[in-house]
Specification:
There is one protein chain. The chain has a nine-stranded mixed beta sheet, sandwiched between helices. A six-stranded antiparallel beta sheet has the order 8-7-10-5-6-9. It is globular. By secondary structure, the protein is of the alpha/beta class. The model has no long low-confidence stretch (mean pLDDT about 95). Helix 1 packs across helix 6 and helix 6 packs across helix 11. The chain is built from eleven helices and 20 strands. It has two domains: about 280 residues, 3-Layer(aba) Sandwich (Aminopeptidase), CATH 3.40.630; about 130 residues, Aminopeptidase i, Domain 2, CATH 2.30.250.10. Helices cover about 25% and strands about 25% of the residues.
Length: about 425
């Protein structure tokens, strides 16, 4: 089972270079399992025991297993994660020409570790909006092949490189796509129109706009002398999306279960399809009774916010509180913060710990050092938006927000097991 799950994650990561592709990949897997797509613009007819999903902006998804037991009696079991990861996004007018090279201007999306982006084989993917036969349409593209690179400056010309230096995102990050003859120019939108034709057989009159990101073409892999680790891009937080999906697909139809995978977490979640927007509440209000019954159902529900945790790094162990250094391959981590950067409280943490103990899943705790700032997740945002009780958890990870992150190869199976138990749990606290 562990090997199958890890390979499934690797395949999912390869198919999901952007939030748009991740959402499409989730939708395809749900449809293969019998889930029916809902359109927010249509009236919905929801049946007990029904399987449904809905997307917004092509980059966020909510999947619903409508329980045979009324949600007002048993509450809803929600698992939340996010589809986006820090990356380099192409600017609207990106063409740059320097020293005979064609480059594209980029902006940094989210809190990316920038140094690992140098000297990687990069490709390009995302959503393109175009006009064809008088209609405005959108389509996903993925060049797949390595077509760009951000070369480092040689140490001979930057003797201070190993002492650390500030990377100027404006000047040092534009990737190189090609070397051009003197006076030659390229049109980036023409390149996108050609890709639409190659990938989808679309003959576009004009490329109107796009949301495109560079990504590393090196595939994720299980690595290590004893195959102890998974290395790959976007583990934060597609790992949790995949674990939540697998747990949902394993669930039976007795209890109401929801998987929420939203975009824009890395930039604050404040969007129409982000956790700080109305997406989840609007969907739930269409599934549940109105008024008093809706509030009562929410209060009987519980959200597990699943987002990666900081594993204790052997070279930087001092960055952790000595009593709260999560180990890779030692199970999911309950994340706690007294200042509400995480939404965990003693009741929700106790329930999650109980689930782990009952299902023989190892469990750990994380609290950041008292002299360091703490990151956050969709947990506090969703909890404050919806009023639902929440526990923040995640799998230990190294190099979070790097172009290539590292997690334990045993931990995915641990997380799927406990999330499956959560979806099947009869009684919530």
């Amino acid at each position: 089972m562990r090997e199958d799950l890890n390979q499934g994650l690797i395949d999912f990561l390869k198919a999901s270079p952007t939030p748009f592709h991740a959402t499409l990949s989730l939708a395809q897997r749900l449809e293969a399992a019998g889930y029916q797509r809902l359109d927010e613009r249509d009236a919905w007819r929801i049946e007990p025991g029904g399987l449904y999903y809905v997307t917004r902006n092509d980059s966020s998804l909510i999947a619903i297993r409508q329980g045979r037991r009324p949600a007002l009696d048993g509450g809803i079991r929600l698992v939340g994660a996010h589809t986006d990861s820090p990356c380099l996004r192409v600017k609207p007018n990106p063409e740059l020409y320097k020293q005979g090279f064609w480059q594209l201007g980029v902006e940094v999306y989210g809190g990316a570790l920038l140094a690992p982006w140098f000297d990687r084989d990069l490709s390009l993917a995302g959503r393109v909006t175009y006009r064809a036969a008088g209609k405005v349409e959108s389509q996903l593209v993925d060049f797949q092949a390595p077509l760009a690179v951000i070369p480092n400056l040689a140490i001979h010309l930057n003797r201070e490189a190993n002492l650390g230096w500030a990377i100027n995102a404006q000047n040092e990050l534009p990737p190189i796509l090609a070397q051009l003859a003197s006076g030659e120019r390229r049109d980036f939108r023409e390149l996108l129109a050609e890709q639409l034709g190659r990938e989808h057989g679309i003959s576009a009159d004009a490329v109107l706009d796009y949301e495109l990101s560079f990504y590393d073409t090196q595939a994720a892999a299980v690595i290590g002398l004893e195959q102890d680790f998974i290395a790959g891009a976007r583990l934060d937080n597609l790992l949790s999306c995949y674990a939540g999906l697998q747990a949902l697909l394993d669930a039976d139809g007795e209890e109401s279960c929801v998987l929420v995978c939203t975009d824009h977490e890395e930039v604050g979640s404040c969007s129409a399809c982000g956790a700080d927007g109305p997406f989840l509440e609007q969907v739930l209000r269409r599934l549940l009774p109105e008024g008093d019954a809706f509030a009562r159902t929410v209060q009987r529900s519980l959200l597990i916010s699943a987002d990666n945790a900081h594993g204790v790094h052997p070279n930087y162990a001092e960055k952790h509180d000595a009593n709260h250094g999560p180990k890779l391959n030692a199970g999911p981590v309950i994340k706690v913060n007294g200042n509400q950067r995480y939404a965990t409280n003693s009741e929700t943490a106790g329930f999650f710990r109980h689930l782990c103990l009952e299902n023989e899943v190892p469990v750990q705790s994380f609290v950041t050092r008292s002299d360091m700032g703490c990151g956050s997740t969709i947990g506090p945002i969703t909890s404050s938006q919806l009023g639902v009780r929440t526990v923040d958890i995640g799998l230990p990870t190294f190099a979070m927000h790097s172009i290539r992150e590292l997690a334990g190869s045993h931990d995915l199976a641990h997380l799927v097991k406990v999330l499956s138990a959560f979806y099947a749990s009869r009684d919530l606290p």
